[in-house]
Design goal:
- About 70% of the residues lie in helices and about 0% in strands.
- The chain is mainly alpha-helical.
- The protein folds into 2 domains: about 25-190, no CATH class; about 220-310, Orthogonal Bundle (N-utilizing Substance Protein B Homolog, Chain A), CATH 1.10.940.
- The mean pLDDT is about 95.
């Protein structure tokens, strides 16, 4: 589920919070990190469970139309294409998916106002009209339609953001990432005939990467922060943005701890993260500072890279 970029972001948040509070233990910080990582998978299931909830609204509307005192012909012959969507049926038949959602309370029953508004928005869309009227009746068409819901309706949905903020402090920043995973999984389901299975981490060693990066950053924070401050002697230490300092410390910790990760990869990762979690000019600061520090640390032998991970000058 989590890629290395998202793992770094989660480590950064835990590191920043731990250093700001000055009270968190290393074991407590690690526990918080692993909890944060597991919550991303919970969000995946929670968001996937939206489409079965939409189906229930569609079924209720069809049934209400048929039960009118004087139902019209359109009421009696309403299309069931949405409620018969094969991707939704696939989810409902997936025992693992339904059991996880049940046990963790990842349902939408208490958010019926949101689901009804979302359904109305979907039904009013051009892609819904196209889906309901097209002659193509296939798993691929059903999966493509579901993808459009996640592409068009949820990324900038303020009501959804409010729900996520209310439900879990870990979820809002993961929304776009998880939406993209669901969109990819819907496409994969069209050819594979089933929903791809996910664990919290994409690779077996990613959990160790997360814990080792956090531990190296926490244990060496003061040491690497001093390196940062000494590298900008003309700056008042108090003027260094705390988020920038934490990102550069993490970059140093990663370069020292993981000899197989190229220095350029490390620098690029923290520059990209700084664009979203620090000041508008932070990416320039982080890029320049990490480049200078890691170049110097390679020359001194403090950073050693293996094989393709050797530093290449710019």
């Amino acid at each position: 589920m989590l890629n290395r970029r998202l793992i770094r972001i989660k480590v950064f948040k835990v590191l920043y919070a731990a250093e700001a509070s000055q009270a968190a233990s290393a074991s407590g910080a690690e526990k918080e990190l692993l909890l944060s990582c597991s919550k991303t998978l919970d969000l995946y299931y929670f968001l996937l469970n939206i489409v079965p909830a939409l189906k229930k609204v569609a079924e209720a509307k069809i049934e209400a139309g048929k039960n009118k005192f004087n139902p019209t012909e359109s009421d009696l012959t309403a299309s069931t294409r949405f409620v018969d969507n094969r991707f939704i049926a696939m989810l409902e038949a997936d025992g693992n998916f339904t059991e996880i959602c049940r046990k963790k309370g990842l349902g939408w029953a208490e958010y019926d106002v949101f689901i009804k508004k979302l359904y109305a928005s979907v039904v009013a869309s051009d892609y819904y009209q196209e889906y309901m009227s097209t002659a193509e009746d296939s798993l691929e068409a059903d999966c493509k339609f579901i993808s459009r819901i996640y592409e068009e309706e949820l990324e900038d949905n303020e009501m959804l953001w409010d729900i996520l903020e209310e439900t879990s402090v870990y979820w809002v920043d993961d929304l776009n990432y998880v939406l993209n995973v669901i969109i990819r999984d819907a496409a994969a389901s069209a050819s594979g005939g089933r929903l791809p299975a996910h664990e919290v981490f994409l690779k077996d060693d990613d959990c160790d990467f997360a814990k080792d990066l956090l531990r190296a950053s926490l244990c060496n924070f003061d040491k690497y922060l001093k390196v940062v401050q000494e590298s900008v002697p003309n700056w008042d230490p108090d003027r260094i943005v705390r988020t920038d300092a934490a990102l550069v410390v993490m970059g140093i910790a990663e370069a020292v701890t993981f000899p197989s990760i190229p220095v350029k990869v490390t620098i690029n990762e923290y520059v990209e993260i700084s664009k979203y979690y620090s000041t508008p000019n932070s990416h320039t600061f982080v890029n320049g500072l990490l480049d200078v520090i890691l170049r110097r640390m390679q020359e001194s032998g403090e950073v050693v890279k293996q094989g393709r991970g050797l530093y290449e000058g710019k």
